[in-house]
């Protein structure tokens, strides 16, 4: 403990001196607060020497793995005590015992290793290859060959930055190319080929089978197939046929067709309403017959039943609709 106290005091004094120095970009740096703090030190508890030491129960650490000593007990196989026996096993056991008894027909075995006949050619020993040139000359220097070809390093450039001397040949000059030169060359070749061909009768490319006028002209369709609405009187397509004579001043028609002016209106007054015989009889107090409709009640039902359908009636009672032939 004395050594720790001395060390703690020494470190505290050094930290106070170091705090006045400039470090880490500061004019002065405060020392840490953990100096001379013994709260982290491991303290040994004091033990009463008069009391005896009583040890607790101890046990070995648990065993790990899949070994036989890692389990309390090993499970027994399910085949123990089973009387089932594979039928093919009996046959194999019988064949094995049978082959053991057979001693005369044993398989052939050679008496020893097979000897090969000696070669007809002489033996030529193969050793290390003879050196064509000595490793060193008489004066002790190592012989070397002539110097290899030496070239300058390749020049760099390309991708739009062409340094002079990068290419093997000079950079090609720009040659203007007209637009559509392929079409011009094709038309020129076609024209030359047609001039070399003899005169032939005209042959159309249409296969025929079409009317004289197209549907667009007959039905007045536009480019999208929509019919165009035209006025009834078209000066461009007016066709003049033979017509009857019409005078320039035709006679008048209707109410204004008379020579004189139309006469003035003369009111006639309200007309007397004629009463029917039924209303006159009711007014007189006479008894009238009950009213009866003239249709006889044979009216269609707005929501007829499905059972009243003629088709369902024929299926339900076919005898009622049976046809009886007359003699």
Annotate the secondary structure layout.
Layout: H1 2-18, H2 87-101, H3 181-196, H4 215-219, H5 277-284, H6 310-316
Structural class: mainly alpha
Mean pLDDT, rounded to whole units? 77
What proportion of the residues form beta strands (DSSP E)? under 5%
What is the helix fraction of residues, given as a range?
Answer: 10-25%
Task: Quickly describe the structure.
The chain contains 6 helices and no strands.
Report what the structure shows.
- The protein has helices spanning 2-18, 87-101, 181-196, 215-219, 277-284, 310-316.
- The protein is mainly alpha-helical and 327 residues long.
- The protein is extended.
- The termini are far apart.
- The mean pLDDT is 77.
Write a concise keyword list for the protein shown above.
6 helices; extended; 327 residues; 0% strand; single chain; mainly alpha
């Amino acid at each position: 403990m004395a050594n720790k106290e001395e060390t703690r005091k020494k470190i505290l004094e050094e930290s106070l001196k170091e705090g006045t120095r400039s470090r880490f970009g500061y004019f002065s740096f405060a020392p840490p607060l953990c100096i001379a703090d013994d709260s982290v030190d491991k303290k040994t508890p004091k033990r009463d020497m008069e009391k005896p030491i009583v040890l607790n129960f101890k046990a070995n650490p648990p065993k790990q793995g899949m070994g036989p000593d890692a389990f309390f007990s090993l499970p027994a196989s399910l085949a123990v005590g089973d009387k089932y026996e594979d039928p093919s096993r009996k046959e194999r056991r019988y064949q094995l015992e049978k082959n053991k008894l057979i001693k005369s027909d044993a398989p052939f075995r050679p008496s020893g290793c097979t000897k090969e006949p000696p070669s007809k050619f002489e033996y030529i020993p193969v050793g290390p290859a003879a050196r064509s040139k000595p490793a060193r000359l008489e004066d002790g220097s190592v012989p070397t060959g002539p110097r290899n070809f030496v070239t300058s390093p390749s020049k760099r450039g390309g991708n739009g930055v062409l340094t002079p001397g990068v290419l093997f040949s000079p950079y090609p000059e720009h040659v203007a190319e007209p637009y559509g030169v392929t079409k011009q060359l094709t038309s020129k070749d076609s024209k030359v080929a047609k001039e070399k061909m003899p005169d032939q009768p005209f042959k159309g490319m249409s296969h025929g089978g079409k009317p004289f006028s197209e549907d667009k002209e007959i039905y007045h369709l536009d480019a999208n197939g929509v019919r165009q609405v035209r006025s009834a009187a078209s000066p461009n397509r007016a066709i003049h046929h033979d017509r009857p004579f019409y005078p320039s001043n035709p006679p008048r028609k209707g109410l204004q067709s008379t020579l004189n002016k139309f006469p003035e209106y003369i009111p006639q007054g309200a007309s007397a309403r004629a009463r029917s015989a039924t209303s006159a009889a009711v007014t007189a107090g006479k008894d009238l017959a009950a009213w009866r409709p003239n249709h006889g009640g044979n009216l269609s039902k707005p929501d007829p039943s499905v059972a009243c359908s003629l088709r369902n009636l024929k299926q339900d009672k076919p005898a009622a609709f049976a046809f009886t032939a007359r003699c």
